[in-house]
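hiii, so i know i said id send this last week but things got crazy w the move. better late than never?? heres the sequnce for the chain we talked about at the cafe, plus the structure i predicted for it. fair warning i was half asleep when i ran it
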Amino acid sequence: MQNNQEALDALVAKEQVGAKKDDEKADLHLTYPTGEQAVVFDSDGCGFCYYETGRVAVCVSKVNAIQRRHTFYENNRLKRILCSIDEHVVGAAGKPHGTKLVLTKDGAILSDGHNDIVHQWRWNPHAQNAGTPPTDPIVIALNETMTFKYVDRKNVSVKFVNCGVALEFNCGEKLKREDTYLGHSRRITSGPLRGKLLVDTSCPNLVQRQKHIELAALEKRSKQHPRSVDLRHPSIKEVVTGLERKFDAYEGCKVTPYCSGHWLQDARERTLAELPVLPPTGFEVGTEPTLFGQPMQAHETKHLLQKLQNKDGQWLASLEIRQKLEHANPVLPRTAVLCNASGRYSVDIQVPGGSAVSMGQRLEVVSAAQLDDFLATDCGTDQIVLVACLREDDRLSRHAEKVLELVHQVLGEKPDALQKHAFSQSLVANITNHKYRLVKVDLAESRALAKRYRVHAAPTFLFFFEGKLVSVSSLGGQALRIAPTTKNANLTHLMDQPPRTLLIQANVKLHVANEKILRKEQFEWDLAMNGEQALLRFAKMSKAAAVNNVVPSYDLVVLSDDLSEADGRLIDRFLRSGDGKKGKATSDTVVCLLLTAPHVEIAFSTMICDPCRVAHGRRTSAAAELSGVCPHCGIVPKKLVAELVPSSLASMAHIVVYKHLRAPTLHRLAESWRDRVLRRKSEQLHRGPEVEAHLGFTQEAFFREMDLALQNGRQGHFLSKSHIPDMALSANETYVGATHLTKPPHSA
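okay and structure toks below
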């Protein structure tokens, strides 16, 4: 029985320790002062440590719940393994021409820098030629940041210290249990089996475990809500007893979740308590009502009636009284729009808050059976008719209808009011001459129109000219990206492709270093050693084949200060004039200047620049000014380098970078190029800077499609009756029949 109790106590202690360890598990993420990633560990203690150069220093992998594998690497191009120890403490530690320790499954071997064995021993001290382990710890400096220390097989550690980040990895042997069955056995001293070891295999059964769990639950409840019977201290027990005597019968803190007792009488009394009391007339019968045991007073209404009278005490007109009452007691507005999802609701349903008033002008509704007569009689000969096939129970259709109402409102404006829109002259003339017309067809009333024109999804837009079908389009559904997402994870939410880069630098060694960063960040780049090679690159790029009517060009030009002043003037002249004949004032090219000269020394700033703060999700301040080099991206304020570089290079540079390119530097340069492109397009089109990056239900998209359909109709480009239109589904989700189609997030 004593053994069973000890086993139960051990089981509970083990469960408590395991629960405590589970609560303490958390991910570990550390960075260097420069912002580079230093440590990335998950809750199981597995992950990586990095040098400040970005190379992997430590790799920890999981074998099971308590055992791990450790691998330590050198900080150079070869990435040599300095130490590797698995879950069985088998591995080696050391570097070439230095002290090395080899750990095997049988023993260990220690050698010096000349590969001579200094010490050798086995794990089993009773084995033949077992040897003796060293009495002092074995310490091996793997490199300037990692130190290996061996005490015994269970105490093996490697300490990693680099740039303020210090971690110690325990690589020793870890077992689920340290004792054996022999430690819990007893020797028989009498009988025929005298001298034999009897193993103790007793363990708690299920009933004993359940009883122990119940006792533990009671103890936990006693700690959270102690009762007087659970306390032994006389003074505390007396205080708790008094509290129980007073509050155990307190009914005000209890809530009945169901209607019982005198609920009807209580509800009636509470309702009557909120109603105004009429003054007595003297002819009342029955018991006089009371309010909380006190006589009920008549409700005073003079302050309300004064608002319905003029200064002379005369009553206002009936219309004015109604307006005053509605102003004093406003009707709550509607919070949602009713949809005829199943035909139960009507568009003309009377709601106290009134119908939801939307911006724009309502569309004309045409039934599917009368569409042909409408196109033949009510529409002009030189007029494009957009028939919107919508459903009231579809969210995308409701969104498209709201945008169409805004377009319909623009079509009804006067010529003077159209000047505020960024429309072309031909589009303004077509709107003025009523060349566009919008109507709506509800697909929920009949399937005839959907079968006739093979409408697969809602919303779908049909364009008719002189009663003939010109085109069928869904306008892309929800907003979608035109190009697939960028391979660079830091830029994919901002742009579709990183800017094409031209690197102009005379130093070959720096060329190779900058190429590695460009390759790692998935940038496309070309190289040039001087100004003449750069002009050849520009000329070759201008002759490349156009993609989507866009001639490729260099969006980012990186110059080094080791170029001569003549090369700088040559490149500057080309960038300013384009082909040398006409100006190129709207150029989106970003010019970056690299300061690589040894004599150029600029102190680092104590704070990072505003673009880096925005990228990290931090606050920015207009009063804070960068006083030196940004320690994260290496960008220097241009005013600090005006006297350190030739004037021809300083005048053409938009951004100045100190020493060499980094990954954050390329991110800031790409963001600067994107801002220049969006700023130019928003100034030209007078619309939001994000419009050109997406397709979808926008006013510009509808006007563009109607103008294109009008031109095709005038040229006689009509669709045949057997034409099967393409089904352009929404970017994220759509409904086809009764099937809900979705697109996985972050997919190309």
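btw Residues 26-170 form one domain. thought thatd interest u
miss u guys!!
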